[in-house]
Amino acid sequence: MKKFDMIVKNGVVVTASDTYRADIGIKDGKIVELSSDLNEDAVEVVDAKGKYVFPGGIDPHTHMDMPFGGTFSSDNFKTGTIAAACGGTTTIVDFAVQPKGKSLKETAKIWREKSDGKAVIDYGIHMNITDMTEDVMNEIPEMIKEGYSSVKLFMTYEGMRVDDGTLLRTLMKVNESGGLTCVHAENYYAIDYNTKKLLSEGKTEPIYHALSRPDLVEGEACGRAIKLARMVNAPLFVVHNTCEASISEIARARAEGYPIMGETCPQYLLLSEDNYREPDFNGAKYVMSPPLRDKKNWPVVWKALKDNTVQLVATDHCPFFMKQKELGKESFTKIPNGAPGVELRMSLIYTYGVVDGKFDLNRFVQVTSTNAAKVYGMYPQKGTIAVGSDADLVVFDPNIETTVTQSMLHENVDYTPYEGFKLKGYPVTTISKGNVVAKDGKFVGKEGAGKFIVRKAPMMI
Ligand code: URP
Ligand code: ZN
Ligand code: ZN
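Structure tokens predicted for Dihydropyrimidinase (461 residues):
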């Protein structure tokens, strides 16, 4: 019997706090030894010479096989997690959207049927409550105990949104049950007013999606959600922050000591409102909510990521084929909201964050892995390289230079919003619980090897 199942040798190990040369010994899916020179027998040796070894990426905001606008997002748990693995991500946390009239138990069952036996990397599941009743409210403690330790509410989207009273009561209930409430913050009434006005003027093209939901729509809702959280002393996590209007609200609350946290996504750091003006309905590729913003927001969002006003980068991966986007040919209101991104997150943030000098390697690890593990109750099982942690690792070659094109990706969709983007640094080997799942751009793992993560209480960071 060999001492190790795998040794990752000769790499530079990077964690949220340290950067050092070490070999990593792995047994039964866990990291069991870290040493400057491991020479014992191992079943498999992965040579990481000249490369970084990061904790596997964690993307805590994905939508696999999600019903939206009369269709479903085009990646399922198999295709979407293959894409994630090929891009250096070893854990996702997906949103189980409650169908009207269903209990949370039934919602979890629907999502577990989509994911169990199909995902190739580990996954957690958030409860996305859309139909709050007294019975549903009373189910929250049990769901949190079973590892669905975060609840998301939409403040907009007809048929899925909740009112302020529901948000307030949910914040209280989730907090007293040891979980974390997340919100999609946009002002429903302002969007509704703007949309009706634009449509009455015959303005139906994709750009009007953005113009119907300006930055103040997001800033107002973000500030309101924060104030509701403060009223009941509950922590709050604001998903997909795009702009100064919302980030300034989070910054102020944090400066005053309130447990408010948030994320942003690569699209809000690298793409802009101008993309909606691409000809031939190409603007539909970028229809997502909240929408892409004026470029002037980019430095504000990058700074928030560096200074921990927002703690992490997720993708909000929610792909639709162009054929599906064409449901909205006649009106931007019918374009399914969402875009792909799960596969490029690590490389985009490394290239435009680390290589461009916006932050260092340790901050890169914090925002792509460690902080998501902490916020969503998976640390230190996930999100670090330490003895006892899951052997979820990505061997990352900082010298690979490439230009993004759809054909190099594994996402089940026919475009990428990042077509033509230059990358410097790319994952070469992704290891999930001690098994290589992706190598040199190819998936080599197993369908169903990913398991549901029973998540614990959030950490405030
Ligand atoms: O446009 C988006 N973001 N679609 C997915 C659902 C959501 O709001 O996160
Ligand atoms: Zn959202
Ligand atoms: Zn989302």
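The first strand starts at residue 4 and ends at 9.
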